[in-house]
């Protein structure tokens, strides 16, 4: 850690003066007293060291195009996209933007996960990353497993380095180097990439390791919070092992072998485990017990952002099911102002949707019975928006005894003045508004309309309910609503969200796994599955 | 689009039962939850067991009344809980309520089991909020507050009231059963140990429950005060333009200087933290204060969108429909390309949460934002809050207490234009009847308790 690096971490005080880049009182500038500082804009320091205000352009067309194609063609979970220094792209759930890229005056925070193997640490770190990024926090998760990659999987060393306290010289050295590089990378993240929240995913079951982390990062002005995951529910642990052996560490061995190796990993660490206690002086920690059933928050002094994470953890549960999205069927006039029931075509579609959906679940159930533990047999529930034709689209599910609930929150984006207008009509009637909307389609509101951002804020409870439920949930809704929910689950940016396409010929399936969420497209009516990876 | 729909999409009904010995801040927490949830437009009501007991004719009981060995008294107290519950169920039915708070002690397992059963019968989700404390200072602070404010002790001098109250606590301690993770593992409960030193959260099942816990985690019980001020008069204020990012007028600067003196005079020796918005006029107002300053984007003025920089007369002429629509529903009205009061309330979440955690904060912000913050502390309904007159060049001191928030307004006696616009006109001025009615500060220094 050089002195140069240290000085690059701004203190809270410095951050106020420099980081926020507000024009200070010494130069009350020109005659122009108009407000340039809107909710979605902030100032960017120029290269001369001074500050100048400019309205932030949300994205250049080129970058939006590449970003878009990445998600549209591959539909990859964006939760691991690196946080980039000068990338000021806003997040969908962000309340406002700041110059420093930091929010809530929360400073920099390191969350350290603690727990034995198979306690869902990776899942937790990724889930917190997803949620805080959605809120606009510059978060990145750091997984120790990535740093072990180049060791031969079958070797003795490979087992030794799975231990929190390796016994061989080589193993000890390896652990040291590994921690050194991960700590270095996290420091770089705070300094170079203007990171606000780093999440460190490793065992960290030794009090001495934790003390060292706390010492190093506290000295740098980074607040440290530990989250200890404890599982004493045997079924949960078992499920976690099944899940863990699907990870890259175990790709080239048989399932039995993988379980055996995993159990070894658990056995060597169990005796070393030092659970967190009040005796670890001045340390703030959260005990996360049996996947959110119980939480103990100790000595929490870090404020809004940490409380928001606790809030999230209260809602997060072990997800056994998948989330499915489908559009509703068609109605005659197909207009926003007429709230109509389905027409013939729409009914036909709903029938096919129901059959396709149930066949998919039936297939999964069969595979689960044949011993594929990856598959789930959770019950299905259906949520629809309150509009007539959408609720009507669920009628064949109802007929089969599957619960269908109208959710007011799923109401489509209110189009306001541009309801039922074609693109050309909008251009003609609202030329200025149209032009403005192209600059920032995510935040722009037409007269009396909602923006996607409004929708994202309004649907927050649903996002958390999706994190909570263990059912399979099928959401039948308007494209605008699906865009936002999908955007959350797949960590899309606000450039991507308004451009996502959902058509009536597919059901979208999102399945959860610890490291990232996966999307499949199920074709209606033949049920063909497009495994988009 | 009401927030009530947002947070209560599935007609969830929740009852929060306060648990704990007397003087553990239960009433304070109940009142805070009520204020927070109603600020978010969620229908909430607090039911105080003590007031139902008073309705049964037991108005100023001495400690003996709380002796659990006396069956007659135990029966009366049980009856007051039964009456409270009945009244609460009635409220859920009649008013379509969402969250009820039962402010009592609920300190035995037997009682709590009964409460859960009753709730289940009425399809209400029960959750318990226990405030456990062994912090003597904190307890004594609460005892003092209760002895001076509660009608139960109005007839006693402070020393006898305290003696009697401590005896009452002793009786309760004999039967107190705190939440236990083994025995109570099946219940939804939150246990706060010495406010926030340790918080145990068990079996949270719905979004709204988690939202309440999230809020409670930010509350501090310590007595403290919050200082609020609008920025000094700005050039735009003088020109009667709204919004903008203008600098202060001469008189505005004079207020900025005076503000330093006023703080020194009214909060001598205290170290405050100053929160401003990112707009120039609030920073200029703070410039003579030598405290630590934080800028919050969330404190920026309500964005008037296309109307930014216009006078009300210009708006009325150029956007007559918008002008009318805003007067018709000022809370929900969104300026074209701008914000509504509700939008401001949502973006203020981090500020409010931090404000609850911190001590000694001076906020220098703007008219609409100040109205929202004031409405939160004083429980002003949303039909009224956007119409409150909060004049320039006035410093307000808020002191949140268990039974309400005390407000003191201090005028700087530096003249400033009025920016108050009453309904149906584009003229500004505070000398109208309307503004007098809505003026929260009808005298130079007034004490008002929140409802």
UniProtKB/TrEMBL annotation, chain A:
It comes from the Eukaryota. Keywords: ATP-binding, Nucleotide-binding. Pfam families: 6PF2K, His_Phos_1. Gene3D superfamilies: P-loop containing nucleotide triphosphate hydrolases, Phosphoglycerate mutase-like. SUPFAM superfamilies: P-loop containing nucleoside triphosphate hydrolases, Phosphoglycerate mutase-like. One of its GO terms (cellular component) is cytosol. GO terms for biological process: fructose 2,6-bisphosphate metabolic process; fructose metabolic process. Residues 98-319 form the 6-phosphofructo-2-kinase domain. InterPro entries: 6Pfruct_kin, 6Phosfructo_kin, His_Pase_superF_clade-1, His_PPase_superfam, P-loop_NTPase. GO terms for molecular function: 6-phosphofructo-2-kinase activity; ATP binding; fructose-2,6-bisphosphate 2-phosphatase activity. The keyword ATP-binding applies. This is 6-phosphofructo-2-kinase domain-containing protein. It comes from Naumovozyma castellii.
Automatic annotation (TrEMBL), chain B:
Its EC number is 3.1.3.46. This is fructose-2,6-bisphosphate 2-phosphatase. PANTHER family: 6-PHOSPHOFRUCTO 2-KINASE_FRUCTOSE 2,6-BISPHOSPHATASE LONG FORM, 6-PHOSPHOFRUCTO-2-KINASE/FRUCTOSE-2,6-BISPHOSPHATASE. It is an enzyme of class 3 (hydrolase). The keyword Protein biosynthesis does not apply. Substrate binds at residues 230-237, 281. The keyword Cell division does not apply. In the C-terminal section; belongs to the phosphoglycerate mutase family. GO terms for cellular component: cytosol. Pfam families: 6PF2K (PF01591), His_Phos_1 (PF00300). One of its GO terms (biological process) is fructose 2,6-bisphosphate metabolic process. InterPro entries: 6Pfruct_kin (IPR003094), 6Phosfructo_kin (IPR013079), His_Pase_superF_clade-1 (IPR013078), His_PPase_superfam (IPR029033), P-loop_NTPase (IPR027417), PG/BPGM_mutase_AS (IPR001345). Residues 5-223 form the 6-phosphofructo-2-kinase domain. Keywords: ATP-binding, Hydrolase, Nucleotide-binding. It comes from the Eukaryota. PROSITE patterns: PG_MUTASE (PS00175). One of its GO terms (molecular function) is fructose-2,6-bisphosphate 2-phosphatase activity.
């Amino acid at each position: 850690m050089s002195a140069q690096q240290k000085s690059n971490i701004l203190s809270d005080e410095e951050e106020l003066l420099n980081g926020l880049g507000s024009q200070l009182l010494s130069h009350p500038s020109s005659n122009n007293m108009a407000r340039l500082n809107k909710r979605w804009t902030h100032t960017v320091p120029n290269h001369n060291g001074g500050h100048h205000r400019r309205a932030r352009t949300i994205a250049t067309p080129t970058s939006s195009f590449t970003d878009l194609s990445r998600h549209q063609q591959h539909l990859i979970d964006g939760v691991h996209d690196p946080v980039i220094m000068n990338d000021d792209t806003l997040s969908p759930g962000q309340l406002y933007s700041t110059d420093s890229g930091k929010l809530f005056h929360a400073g920099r925070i390191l969350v350290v996960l603690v727990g034995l193997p198979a306690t869902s640490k990776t899942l937790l770190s990724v889930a917190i990353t997803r949620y805080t990024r959605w809120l606009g926090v510059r978060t990145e998760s750091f997984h120790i497993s990535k740093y072990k990659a180049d060791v031969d999987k079958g070797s003795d060393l490979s087992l030794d380095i799975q231990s929190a306290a390796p016994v061989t010289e080589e193993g000890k050295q390896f652990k040291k180097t590994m921690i050194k590089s991960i700590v270095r990378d996290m420091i770089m993240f705070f300094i170079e990439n203007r990171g606000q929240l780093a999440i460190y995913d490793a065992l960290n079951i030794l009090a001495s390791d934790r003390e060292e982390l706390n010492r190093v990062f506290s000295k740098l002005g980074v607040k440290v919070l530990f989250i200890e995951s404890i599982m004493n529910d045997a079924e949960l642990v078992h499920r976690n092992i099944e899940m863990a052996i699907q990870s890259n560490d175990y790709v080239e061995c048989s399932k039995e072998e993988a379980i055996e190796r995993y159990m070894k990993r658990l056995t060597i660490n169990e005796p070393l485990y030092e659970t967190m206690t009040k005796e670890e002086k001045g340390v703030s920690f959260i005990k996360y017990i049996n996947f959110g059933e119980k939480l103990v928050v100790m000595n929490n002094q870090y404020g809004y952002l940490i409380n928001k994470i606790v809030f999230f953890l209260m809602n997060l549960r072990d997800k056994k099911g998948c989330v499915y999205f489908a559009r509703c069927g068609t109605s005659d006039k197909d207009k926003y102002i007429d709230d109509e029931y389905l027409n013939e075509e729409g009914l036909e579609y709903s029938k096919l949707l129901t059959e396709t959906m149930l066949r998919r679940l039936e297939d999964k159930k069969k595979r689960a019975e044949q011993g594929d533990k990856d598959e789930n047999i959770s019950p299905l529930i259906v949520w629809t928006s309150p509009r007539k034709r959408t609720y009507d689209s669920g009628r064949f599910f109802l007929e089969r005894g599957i619960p269908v609930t109208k959710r007011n929150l799923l109401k489509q984006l209110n189009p306001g003045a541009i309801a039922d207008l074609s693109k050309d009509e909008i251009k003609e009637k609202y030329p200025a508004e149209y032009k403005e909307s192209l600059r920032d389609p995510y935040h722009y509101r037409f007269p009396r309309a909602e923006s996607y951002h409004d929708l994202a804020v309004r649907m927050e409870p649903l996002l958390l309910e999706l994190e909570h439920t263990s059912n399979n949930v099928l959401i039948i809704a308007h494209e605008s609503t699906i865009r936002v929910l999908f955007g959350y689950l797949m960590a899309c940016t606000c450039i991507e969200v308004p451009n996502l396409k959902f058509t009536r010929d597919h059901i979208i399936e999102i399945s959860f796994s610890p490291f990232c969420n996966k999307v499949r497209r199920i074709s209606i009516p033949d049920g063909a599955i497009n495994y988009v990876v | 689009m009401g927030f009530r729909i947002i947070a209560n999409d599935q007609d969830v009904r929740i009852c929060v039962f306060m648990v704990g010995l007397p003087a553990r801040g239960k009433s304070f927490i109940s009142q805070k939850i009520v204020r927070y949830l109603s600020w978010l437009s969620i229908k909430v009501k607090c039911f105080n067991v003590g007031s139902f007991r008073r309705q049964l004719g037991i108005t100023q009981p001495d400690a003996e009344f709380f002796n659990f060995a006396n069956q007659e008294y135990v029966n009366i107290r049980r009856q007051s809980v039964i009456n409270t519950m009945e009244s609460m169920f009635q409220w859920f039915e009649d008013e379509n309520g969402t969250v009820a708070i039962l402010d009592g002690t609920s300190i035995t397992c037997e009682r709590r089991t009964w409460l859960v059963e009753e709730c289940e019968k009425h399809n209400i989700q029960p959750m318990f909020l226990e405030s456990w404390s062994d912090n003597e200072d904190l307890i004594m602070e609460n005892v003092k507050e209760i002895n001076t404010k509660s009608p139960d002790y109005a007839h006693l001098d402070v020393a006898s009231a305290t003696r009697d109250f401590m005896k009452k606590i002793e009786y309760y301690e004999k039967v107190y059963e705190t939440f236990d993770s083994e025995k109570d593992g099946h219940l939804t409960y939150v246990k706060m140990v010495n406010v926030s030193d340790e918080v145990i959260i068990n079996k949270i099942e719905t979004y709204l429950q988690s939202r309440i816990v999230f809020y409670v985690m930010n509350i501090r019980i310590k007595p403290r005060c919050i200082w609020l001020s609008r920025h000094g008069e700005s050039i735009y204020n003088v020109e009667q333009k709204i919004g903008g990012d203008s600098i202060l007028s001469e008189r505005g600067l004079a207020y900025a200087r005076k503000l330093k003196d006023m703080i020194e005079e009214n909060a001598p020796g205290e170290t405050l933290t100053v929160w401003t918005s990112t707009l120039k006029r609030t920073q200029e107002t703070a410039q003579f204060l030598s405290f630590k300053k934080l800028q919050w984007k969330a404190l920026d003025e309500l964005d008037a969108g296309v109307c930014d920089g216009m006078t009300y007369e210009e708006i009325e002429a150029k956007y007559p429909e918008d002008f009318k629509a805003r007067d018709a529903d000022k809370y929900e009205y969104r300026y074209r390309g701008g914000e509504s009061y509700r939008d401001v309330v949502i973006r203020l979440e981090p500020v409010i949460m931090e404000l609850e955690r911190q001590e000694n904060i001076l906020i220098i912000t703007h008219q609409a934002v100040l109205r929202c913050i004031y409405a939160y502390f004083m429980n002003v309904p949303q039909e009224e809050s956007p119409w409150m007159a909060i004049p320039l060049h006035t410093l307000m001191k808020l002191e949140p207490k268990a039974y309400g928030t005390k407000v003191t307004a201090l005028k700087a006696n530096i003249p400033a234009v009025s920016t108050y616009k009453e309904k149906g006109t584009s003229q500004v001025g505070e000398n109208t009847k309307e503004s007098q009615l809505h003026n929260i500060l009808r005298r130079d220094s007034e004490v008002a308790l929140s409802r």
